[in-house]
Amino acid sequence: MTKTFSPSKIAAGSFAALTLALAGCANNYGTSSASPAAVGQASSVYHGTVTSVRQITIQSDRSLIGTATGAVLGGLAGSELGGGDKAQTAGAIGGAVIGGIAGNEAGKAVGKKQGYAYIVRFSNGEVKEIIQGADVYIAPGTPVDIIAGADGWKLVPAGY
């Protein structure tokens, strides 16, 4: 007995699977998160002062997981269309292409976060821009600890 799926059921299932796959990929980009690679690693700490700050959007250029998930689900959905082998193959290819494009865009949207670009004057006089998530706002003039570790550079108010 062959089971048939309606296009609306396939689309709903594809969307649910894509949403779940992409939700697990979101990164916090903030001062209160750490990757597993950072656990047990020593970080260097510098001191400085925030001289200016501007709000930014942190956005991925592409989403490999979104693209792959969308392509697989689109290919499966597309293969259900048409009556013959050639129509199913064409549907699978078309579905994979369209699903990949849609999955990439969905992945980029899920990966979009708000953040701040801080200009920091280190205590040695050096000036750098450090970008991080918006979980902590640090006003210009605030003394900061600048942490250089396995997860990149992070700023926290001094004594935080």
Architecture blueprint of SSEs:
Elements: H1 7-23, E1 44-58, H2 64-79, H3 85-110, E2 113-122, E3 127-133, E4 143-149, E5 152-157
Antiparallel strand pairs: 1-2, 1-4, 2-3, 4-5
Descriptive account of the structure:
This protein is 37% helix and 28% strand. The protein is built from three helices and five strands, in the order αβααββββ. The longest helix has 26 residues, at 85-110. The radius of gyration is 23 Å and the shape is elongated. Helix 1 packs parallel to helix 3. With 160 residues, it is of the alpha+beta class. A hairpin with a 2-residue loop joins strand 4 and strand 5 (152-157). The chain has helices spanning 7-23, 64-79, 85-110, and strands at residues 44-58, 113-122, 127-133, 143-149, 152-157. It has a five-stranded antiparallel sheet with strand order 3-2-1-4-5, with no helix packed on it. It has two domains: 1-28 and 61-110, no CATH class; 31-59 and 112-160, OB fold (Dihydrolipoamide Acetyltransferase, E2P) (Beta Barrel). The model is unreliable at 18-27 (pLDDT under 50).
